[in-house]
Amino acid sequence: MQKGNITEAMINEYTKIAYYYHKAGFTQEEIANKMNMSRQRVNRILAECISLGIVQIHVVNINENYMDIEAGLEKKFNLKGACVMNNLIKENIYVDLGMAAGRYIGNFINEGDTVGFSRGRATAAMVDYMPLLRKENLTVTQLLGSANHDREHVAVDDIVHNFAVKLQAKPVMLYAPVIVQSSELQNSIIKEPFFQEAYNTVRNCNVAIVGIGTASGQTEHLLPLNAIQETEDDKEKMERAVGEVGTHFFDAEGRPVIPSYRNRIIAISLEDYLNIPIRIGIAGLPEKADAIYAALKGGYINVLVTDLETAKILKQKP
């Protein structure tokens, strides 16, 4: 087909099919079912994508430009590693991040490690799309309590379970809610022997894999869980907060922001979290750039998996 005979709608359709096949890893049969067309048509479109220049094949230095950006981020933020991927379709950001992180984390997980997770779509997608790592004697745990209203699959206990099943790791669960009604109840739970035993595993994590949230988004998630009302002092504090990792809020410089309900939250302490040697953050999209930047400045993560557009924003920041 000649370029002059192809419409904008066809270009969009062809680009989506090429993306599903070459980036997302769908088979031609899966794409046919997804796009409601025959497998033969999918095959023909994929061939035309090459002749039209929608798909270009490069054998050498395929990620040379990304490597420059990755190296720049590593140097700027003193990171142990950075992985940048190109997200073509915004709606697929979590799948793209998950696939990139799934391929990348094998560089940081060793036999006998204990891996801790936070909740979220990015960390859940990473577990879904990571390859079967050949690592023996892994332990996996949750860095924070669970929330009943979390959608199945993105809840932290689901993520821990799925990782354990996929890699035959030993799961250690907290069996506690992420937030309770009073500091007295929180204090009672964390003193229980069953919790203390589980928390010893959390404290001994070698690797943390976390999402990075905006402060407003995570406040909206936490507060309704126990009908907690923000005080005026909380509202004033949270106006300074830009991001969150593992229930820990921080401002634009990465400094902790501690609301009054902190003592009702059941999660790894900030001190214990920052003592984990490898802290992998998976997050993307420009609207999260300020939160990611603050997390980097505050040392909440020392390995980053993000998308190209966000990486460019982070690199340009002072």
Distance between the termini: 48 Å
Determine the structural class based on helices, strands and strand pairing: alpha/beta
CATH architecture of the largest domain: 3-Layer(aba) Sandwich
* CATH fold-level assignment of the largest domain: Rossmann fold
Helix content: 40-55%
Overall structural domain count: 2
List SSEs in N-to-C order: HHHHEHEHEHEHHEEHHEEEHEHEH
CATH class of the largest domain: Alpha Beta
Low-confidence segments, given as residue ranges, are 60-64
Please compute the radius of gyration using only Cα atoms.
21 Å
GO biological process, one term: DNA-templated transcription initiation
Protein name: DNA-binding transcriptional regulator LsrR (DeoR family)
Keywords: DNA-binding, Transcription, Transcription regulation
InterPro entries: Cro/C1-type_HTH, NagB/RpiA_transferase-like, RNA_pol_sigma70_r4, SorC_transcr_regulators, Sugar-bd_dom_put, WH-like_DNA-bd_sf
Please explain how this structure is put together.
There is one protein chain. This protein is an alpha/beta fold. It is built from 14 helices and eleven strands. The strands form two sheets. A seven-stranded parallel sheet has the order 1-11-10-5-2-3-4. Helix 5 packs across helix 6. The longest helix has 15 residues. This is DNA-binding transcriptional regulator LsrR (DeoR family).
